[in-house]
Amino acid sequence: MIFSTLSKATLAVVATLLLTQSVESHSYVDCVDWRFTKASKNPKDISWSDKNGACFGYARRFPLKAKPFAKLDSDDPNRHYQQKHSKDNKSENELACSNGKVGEEPGADETVSNPVEGAYTGMDKRKRKYGQMTQKFVGDTLCMRWPAKNHAVPSEKERMVFIGLMKYDGKKIYTQKDYLNKGKDKPVQNEVVPYKNCSDKGKDTDIWPCGACFKLNENMVPGVYSGQWRWQLNSNEFYTSCFDIRVKAKDGNATEPVAPPTKEDPKEDPKEDPKEDPKEDPKEKPKKDKKKCKKGKKGKKCRKAQKDDKGN
Q1: What values do phi and psi take at 185, rounded to 5?
Q2: Cβ neighbours of residue 79 under 8 Å, at least 6 residues apart?
Q3: Distance CA 242, CA 112 (A)
Q4: Other residues' Cβ atoms within 10 Å of the Cβ of residue 255
Q5: Is 37 or 143 the better-scoring residue by pLDDT?
Q6: Residues contacting 212, CB < 8 A, separation 6+
Q7: Residues 111, 120 contacting (CB under 8 angstroms)
Q8: Which segments show compositional bias classed as Basic residues (predicted)?
Q9: How confident is the model at residue 287 (pLDDT cuts 50, 70, 90)?
Q10: Fold designation for 23-248
Q11: Cβ contacts of residue 71 below 8 Å, gap of 6+?
């Protein structure tokens, strides 16, 4: 009887733990700008662990020094945002970025800030500083990292991650349709990467570090871009993380370039520049044509006159 009671209690605890793991095992972007400290010739051998790199850019209002890697899905509020399920299995009419209020799991507030830096310079309610904003150059490689959360094991189907970048204008709040290239505003860049690209696969499949890299387009206009990381767990179950990137020109200029002056610009017309007009320079004297003097006594006066001119 005692054994039966203990068995029931044990089963209840195990069931609770499994349920908790199932509820909390949802992923999010841990780092937007991950940079490796050790290079690897074979991409398959690359390690996404903290020992092999560091983070230089985060999602909006991402708390630093909060919890160990992969544990922010149990934070308050939880880091992951699960969009509301939809009948069309696309959730394209849902909020692209969490506002902390709606969705199957609202998650943390990742709405865009104005100015955009506001989402990276403050602190949360626990006085934890927010991570810095990503800054890259045109054509740079961007690597993003996320925790496996038990969904990268061989028995699970590979689900892709969709990454979209939109030009930030300081006012527009982009919708999920925009990021899916179905709205009025079109993404500047879209990438599709595998979710299960993980390394350091120990016994705890929840904390496997995963990630992917891609190059920013060479023709990107320098400025700020709003970004979304979107992962599909099941047919109608999507999770998102949102971020911003300041893209600089290769010469270091982070602002949009100014068009060069045209040929019609009066400043470029030498006729309009007084320094270029010889008539406007009082110091310049008209040159006299040099005459040839005759030889002998007849050309003596001519040669003397030329000599006097040189002396002047």
Answers
A1: -90, 135
A2: 28, 62, 72, 73, 107, 108, 241
A3: 8
A4: 11
A5: 143
A6: 143, 144, 161, 191, 193, 194, 197
A7: no
A8: 288-304
A9: low
A10: Immunoglobulin-like (2.60.40)
A11: none
Of residues 85, 125, 133, 86, the one with CA closest to residue 108: 125
At 17 the three-state DSSP class reads helix
**Coarse DSSP helix, strand, coil percentages of the chain, rounded to the nearest 5 percent:** 20, 25, 55
pLDDT of residue 288: 52
Supply 185's token pair: 């505003």
**Cα angle 58-51-141, degrees, rounded to a multiple of 5:** 50
Retrieve residue 65's tokens.
Answer: 């020094």
Handedness of CA 216, 217, 219, 224 (dihedral sign): negative
Output the average pLDDT for the chain.
Answer: 79
Tokens read off for 84? 């509301």
pLDDT category of residue 128 using cuts at 50, 70 and 90: very high
